[in-house]
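debug: dumping io for the single-chain case to check the tokenizer round-trip. Nothing else runs in this session.
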Amino acid sequence: MTLSLADRHIAALMRQIATQDRFELVHPFAEWPTFGALTYIAECYGFRYAGVRLAGKQKMAHIELVRDTGPEAQQRAAVCRAAFPDPGPGRPAPGMYLGTLTPVPEAQADVDLVTTLIRYDAAGAAANRRQLLAMAWAGPALFGLLAVLTGKYAVLLPLAVLTPAFLLGALRINTARRAKLAGRLTAAGCTPVRDEAGREGFVRPAPHAA
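debug: decoded output
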């Protein structure tokens, strides 16, 4: 039997849930709603979303999930396992239409919320403000020095001008996008927080029920 992409994603997720207490969702080319749906399912089985990291030259998203040992999470997991003991091909997964990662109406708001949070965290991981500002101001100096050393002014001086403009423009776009996502999270009742490293984030209301 040929499995759909959604079935393969769900099967891989359930293997990780059964064998690990901490794992990452890594699906090249997956869209954010796919990550949101898979995270929703994992949380139904007693896990919690723990953040996003971007790895490699392509900045591939790694969605971090950890087992939640709190009593509410464990109770939620027990209820979910009773109702959905073995999600897979031909068998339903919590909150999704059969054979898909499309949320049913009752789960749509929760999936949308975790998807927005993932996108917010990913945008923060993609744009290290201090790093981009340092690159924006170091770039012109480097290209200017290279121009003097090589004599290739026609090539390197335009780069000295365009590099900071590109980096600062990207930073502004990212900041605006993240502010829009933050507005959605605040409107949904999420609480803004800051971790030990000074990174901004949000804490959602109590997790959804299975």
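debug: round-trip ok. The longest helix spans residues 153-187.
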